[in-house]
Amino acid sequence: MSLACATASKAVGDYDAAKLASSDLPSKDSWRVVLALADQAFVSSNTFLTVVLIAKFALRVDFNLFVLGFSIFAFFKVAFDRSLSAPYAFFSNQPEREQAPFLGSSLIHCLVLALGSCLLMQVCAVTVPLFASLPGISATLAVFGLIAPMMLLRDFLRATSAANFRFGFALLLSVAAMAFQVSGLLVLYYLDSLSIHCILACVGLANLLPSILWFAMRPIPIEFRWGQVWNDWKSTFDYSKWLLLARIFPSAASSLLPWIILWILGEDAAGAFAACSSLANISMMFVYGAISFLQPRAVQALYASGRQGLARVLGYAALLFTITLSVLCVVLYFAGSWLLATLYRPAFSAHDTLVMLLALHVLLVSYSVVAGIGIASFEKTKCILWGELSYALVAVAATFVFADFMGLAGAGIALCMASSISTLISWIVLRSLWNQASGLHSGLEPALVEHIEGQPKDSKHENSEQPRGSGAE
């Protein structure tokens, strides 16, 4: 599976910058971090257990079909997140933004994008078999397209809850989805019906049911103002277009990697690569969980305290990622072979080097994520493109070169090279933006808009139609 990239309540809607300096903020932040990490723990556990159960109990061909189909869906999911979830996290935390109408507009945008993903998956179902003669891949992609709207809707509702600091509801969605999905797969195994189509039907229902629960509880106010939908769409697109373009390249590269491995090393190697990726993706639990909190927090810190506030958020993120991901790298270094054999298949134990390299890759990516949060917080989302483009080009080219004569370990080396170069470029860009903003010592209004964007205070972006986002793998 792909390693690349990738998340308003009334209190936040009425947010006042002075509250950020209140004495109870550290305790609130600590509690929010715990909930955010717990939420992502269940999300990652759900994906991890799903791959484990399919790898261990389903037929080898069904497992390979699932991971190859998911690699294409992951591309559309990243595009969806960058087109909708990331801009929502920014706009919903602007003090002057009416949250209920904006959420209503965002839900309409979600429906349109989800249906578009469904149609594009159907196109893939027709075209992919022309290039990869893998029995069953066409039907697999077609069914993936049918369940894609259910998966994307649940993911957006979870991101919406996190952006509004309603981490309890985000956690509820994740726990419910995991309970439905894992129990459903176990029932299918018990009934000896763990085929690829039954697996995908189970995944779709497991995402749909929590979404219905969320709408029944409606933890965040929703209001539909049809005349506002198009203006909100334009605001969202103006913000997300560079984030989307930036992530298109690495996401496409990550989705292509299993297919490149399929072409060079064969179907079983592609399945082994997916198993190792899912094990290394345990590390991403911390990255994604922290992003769910840091993404809106960085916006608030910059509005309230300028560069100094943003520096504290970025420093905290870098320290958190270094400690947690380094520990997991050490664990996988010593126990990777045993874990692959025990959790998946004994044949996968020979790929312990790959799983260690992929864990190191995640650590390197986390530093790029920190830089990406900083870059987008300065509202220069266009600048994220260079680091992401370099990742995509190096990852694809290096995988073709190294996998051909080093096998799957070569693919791991290629990803580490790509993430190292991308991280370096991202931090160079952030340093440049940081220096440009050297005269700023307080909130965004109005100095940051004028200084960073180079626009007069009365420009068309004054009315909160200014972007912010984050980097996520």
Structural features:
473 residues; mainly alpha; 14 helices; 78% helix; globular; disordered C terminus
How would you characterize the overall build of this protein?
This protein is mostly helical and 473 residues long. 78% of the residues lie in helices and 0% in strands. The chain has 14 helices and no strands. It has helices at residues 10-13, 25-57, 60-91, 99-127, 137-163, 167-190, 196-217, 226-265, 267-280, 284-343, 352-377, 384-406, 408-436, 447-453. Helix 8 (226-265) packs across helix 9, helix 9 (267-280) packs across helix 10 (284-343) and helix 10 packs antiparallel against helix 11. The longest helix has 60 residues, at 284-343. The radius of gyration is 21 Å and the shape is globular. The two termini are 12 Å apart. Residues 1-27 and 440-473 have low confidence and may be disordered.
